[in-house]
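Practice problem: Helicase ATP-binding domain-containing protein
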Amino acid sequence: MQDDNYGGVIPTASSKTFQLRGYQAEMVAESMKDNVIVVMDTGSGKTHIAIERTRAELETCEPGQVIWFLAPTVALCEQQYDAFQSNIPGVGHQLLCGRDDVELWTTQAEWDRVLLNVRVVISTHAVLLDALTHGFVKLSKLALLIFDEGQFVALTQQHLSIKVL
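Answer key — structure tokens:
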């Protein structure tokens, strides 16, 4: 489903639409031009910004590239996976967490099988860091990288998101 140049309407699986607020649309537009950090209160619509930015990227990126969304906890990954799946139907989504025994995937073939036809990956930082470190996922395959709960990155140099960066 296309949304006329990411114009603010997000079709969902239930055919409802979400109209971005002005500040959300502005953040999406800015993120199309440059890297941005979106810092807003809980419940202010950061997830909708991430979803709309993802939709826009899916329309322009190469077919083999993926959008990778990172969250610090499994619970947040599950929550975001549900949001992305219901708001961006029709594309392959994959949730990857430690409980999937990702650290035991030791071949490129395993990673290729799991990511086949996947356009949006939701995972913890550790999953992507491990995949990048071992060369199973190449940076060139990532069209967009989104960090959820990014405000915690600045709190410690040891945070896994710093290592991903």
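Discussion: Residues 9-164 form a domain with the Rossmann fold fold (CATH 3.40.50.300). Students who identified this feature from the tokens alone can consider the problem solved.
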